[in-house]
Amino acid sequence: MNRLQEKKLKIIGRLERINFPEWDLFDIDAKIDTGAYTSSLHCHHIEPFSKEGRSYVRFNLLDPSHETYNEKLFELPVHATKNIKSSNGTTEQRYIIKTAIRLLDKEFKAELSLADRSEMRYPVLLGRKFINKRFVVDVSKKYLSDNN
């Protein structure tokens, strides 16, 4: 990438607040992780099922202790399944779904793996696949999206 292209990329910090407009979820903390390829989303009660011959997954977002938790059960088509190595080094097969993420007043389509991130500090992790060619990460900053 040359300097001219870099200048067009928006700067984000190591932590940002994002929105999921399709799900009416707003101001969710996301950790920006350039070490992770795939983005992930914390949920529980992850259950695969079939509907009209297609693979679907149902789940609850976040934890009941999270301030925006609403007990809503989501049912989405499975975009893919993927073996993903977690931060503790174990590999697990995860369901990948697609949804919109709003960051810096712009909406982006994103692929997210569904994972139990209850032991993690932030419910969403945005990896390189989402960041690439969209943002530059300034690790000395956080919540730059709050300034927009």
UniProtKB/TrEMBL annotation:
It holds the Pfam family Zn_protease. Residues 11-146 form the Retropepsin-like aspartic endopeptidase domain. Gene3D superfamilies: Acid Proteases. It comes from the Bacteria. Transmembrane segments: none annotated. This is RimK/LysX family protein. It comes from Fodinibius salicampi.
